Amino acid sequence: MNQDHEPEATRRDTSDTESSRASRGWWDRNADEYQSEHGAFLGDDRFIWGPEGLDEAEAALLGPAAELKGRRILEIGAGAAQCSRWLAAQGALPVALDLSHRQLQHALRITGGIADDPTELVEADAGALPFRDHSFDLACSAYGALPFVADPVRVLREVRRVLRPGGRFAFSVSHPLRWAFPDEPGPEGLSVSASYFDRTPYVEQDESGRAVYVEHHRTLGDRVRDVVAAGFRLEDLVEPEWPDWNTQEWGGWSPQRGHLIPGTAIFVCTAEA
To answer: For the segment 66-125, what is each residue's pLDDT rounded down to a tens digit?
Structure first.
């Protein structure tokens, strides 16, 4: 792709293969900028569920921190493995999986400054997890994989497969309501501009029409049905409120919008026995 060419934003259908290829390429190209821009907020060893800043240390969506010790936990779409590093600090045995080689290189960069980091890094597609059945106690994903795949049930079924019966999976995504509004942090992002029910993926494509970034919309009901279809029981749906201490803007997330409409949805699920 011509690096001087600005990608064209459009809405069109994409396959799972095209979405996966676009995601790998986009995150490899943009990992440096992403970590530079958001690394301070994410920290080296914090577990943040989204731009609102909800911290797992406070939320305990995977369970009390004291009960994580010795638990084998899979993080999907781990990026630089900040969440996994926090889990390791609680005594857990985390595996941080990501599609992007460059994101995992940033995980290695951070690990280089932390002695005895037990976090295992794995480069793989979330739709084809390279693990045995029932090999994890818990799983988590903070904005990883699920917003970017054409077939979320396939990913959810893979997570269900590698979890032990009764294991918990918690994952966060952009709140589905956000798709009806422009992705702008200011007042222009507070007026509905599109149908909430339009599930056509958002695509950025190069001059040849090849997708270089893809994000998929699912309504709230779609997400619930996906969870159930994959063999999970939905235990909770968390919609974090924007805290007064958080003054940052992150893409379309901002204090102005965050105090009025939800920006993140966190699904807490249990693998059916």
So the answer is: 999 999 999 999 999 999 999 999 999 999 999 999 999 999 999 885 656 779 999 999
pTM of the complete model beyond 0.85? yes
Phi-psi region of 260 (alpha: psi -120 to 50; beta: other; left: phi over 0): alpha
Radius of gyration of the chain from its Cα atoms, rounded to whole angstroms: 18
Q: How far is CA 233 from CA 136, 189, 216, 267, in A?
A: 17, 34, 23, 10
Edge-to-edge strand list for the sheet holding 232-238: 120-123, 93-98, 72-76, 136-142, 163-174, 264-271, 232-238
- Find the helix packing angle between 101-111 and 82-89, rounded to 10°: 40
pLDDT tens digits for range 222-258? 999 999 999 999 999 999 999 999 999 999 999 999 9
Strand order across the 8-11 sheet: 8-11, 202-205, 211-215
- The answer to whether residues 235 and 269 touch, using CB atoms and an 8 Å cutoff, is yes
